[in-house]
Amino acid sequence: MLEKTATRFSHVKPGDTPWRSDGLRDFFQYRDLGVAEATHGKVIAHLVRANQAPEQGTGWHRHEAQFQIVLMLKGWARFMYEDQETLVEAGDCVHQRPGIRHYLFDYSADMEYLEIVSPADFGTVDVDAVCAIPPPTPWR
C-alpha cells in the first residue's frame, strides 16, 4: 500500500480543468494541472494567462517557496527581479530563487506561462519597492 506522502500519477487534458479568475491576481486567469493533488501539496503546476491589460502589475513581492520556475508559453512579460529588468518571451524559462523580490509589471495580451512552485501552498509577501518601475505597454 502506498503511503500518503507518495505521489500519484496524474494526467490532465485541456478540458479537464477550467480557467479560473479567482487566483492570486484578478487580472490573470489560472488553470490547475492536477499536480498539487497528485503530490499531496508538495508541488503546484498551473497555467497563467493574461485576463486584463496591465495597469499596476503585481506590485513588489516575494514568495515563501523552496522552488519556482516560470516557462513562458506564449507572448511576453516584463519583470523586475530586484533592480534588474527582465524580458521573458515565449520559450524562456526563469528560475526564481527563493525569496527574490520581484514585480511583473507588463505583459502582452496573449501572455501565457506555466508556473511550477513548491510547496503548493506557497505564500506571497508584499515588500517595499526596490526601484522605480517602467510604465506598461498599452494594449491596442
UniProtKB/TrEMBL annotation:
Every Cupin type-2 domain range: 53-116
UniProt xrefs under InterPro entries: Cupin_2 (IPR013096), RmlC-like_jellyroll (IPR014710), RmlC_Cupin_sf (IPR011051)
Signal sequence, start to end: none
SUPFAM superfamilies: RmlC-like cupins
Pfam families listed in its UniProt record: Cupin_2
Identification of the protein by name: Cupin domain-containing protein
Organism: Ramlibacter pinisoli
